[in-house]
Amino acid sequence: MDSLSTPQSPSSAAAARPDHDAVAAAIERRLQAEREKAAADAAARGSAFDIRNHEKRQEFRRMIDPGILRPNPRPLALEALQTLLKLAQNIIDHPDEAKYQRFKPTNPNIKRLLVEPRGTLEYAVALGFNPHIENFQPFYVFNTRRMEDLKIGAAMIKEALDRELVKEDREQRRSAEEKAAHEAAVAKVKQAFYDDRKGRALIDERERVTRAAAAANRAAGSSASPAIADYRPKRRMPGSGHTLSGETIELDDDDDEDGEGSVSVAPNHPDDDE
Prior knowledge:
PUB_domain, single chain, disordered N terminus, 7 helices, PUB-like_dom_sf, Methane Monooxygenase Hydroxylase, Chain G, domain 1
């Protein structure tokens, strides 16, 4: 008699099938673990990179300040740093173009900005430029194996310029404000001086007018005062009198045309005295 296999119950069959949710969760955990490991590796590489280049960044910072900023006039130092950054950025942006990988130290602008100032040519060498002679002409040519140094040096220049240009802008604003305040103070003093002169002129004019009016009043008062009276009588009183010589004067009461009476003189006879 053939033996028959015992059929599985539904519960045991369900237990034998894989749990898809559990499998998906396990896969997700594995992927997450791989992502975390990759991030940790990247962070470790970044940390190692930072550690390896920390000294290089510090070296470039020291070459900028105090190496370039302190011994040179500030405007010249800032312009020289901008020129160095332009040289580095041209190579970073155009790594395959040879024309950006060299400069001639006898060029007037290069000589003024990179050769004559203190510390600038040394910075170019630290970026990766080395002196060469071609056809008896001096050049500084970039070594393409120094690209990492070039990028670090350019980053340090950007860092310094961001800091120094802000300070420069603040200093220029402060100087402009001080100049404006000084000019305003000078203008105020001048205006006060002009106002004082104008006020003094008005006062002098009022005093002059006052003196002129007083003089006119005095002159008018003098001309209006009564003249000395003439006490001589306009008419002679009628009557008679004697002169020292003894003559008798008779004054008539009748007026003539000019308002005076007529006068008659009678000789004095000796007999009259007796």
